[in-house]
Amino acid sequence: KLTYKEQKELDDSEARIGELEALVETLANSLLAIDSNDYKKMQEINQEIEKHQAELDRVTERWLELSEKVS
User: Fold this and answer.
1) Global pTM?
2) 24: pLDDT confidence band, cut at 50, 70 and 90?
3) Which residues have C-beta within 8 Å of that of residue 70, sequence separation ≥ 6?
């Protein structure tokens, strides 16, 4: 059984996962639209993708931990 704080975290992480997935997808699509000679912009977007993907992985892992406690 989850504490109130854990339940809130679980609920919030579900929404955050959706936000991060959409953000990573948007960034990946924008990467495709960039001029292939603009290496600096490509690198910046790649760094943003990596940053948000790392957060997505962390939030998803925590969501899984909390979900297992519910079952």
Assistant:
1) 0.88
2) very high
3) 1, 2, 10
Indicate if the alpha-carbon torsion angle 21, 24, 28, 29 is positive or negative: positive
First to last CA, the chain: 8
Residues 41, 34: Cα–Cα separation, whole Å: 8
For 35, phi and psi rounded to 5 degrees? -60, 125
Taking CA atoms, 53 is separated from 48, 63, 65, 69, in Å, by 8, 15, 18, 25
SS (H, E, C) 5-45: HHHHHHHHHHHHHHHHHHHHHHHHHHHHHCCCCCHHHHHHH
Query: Are 16 and 62 in contact, with CB atoms under 8 Å apart?
Result: no
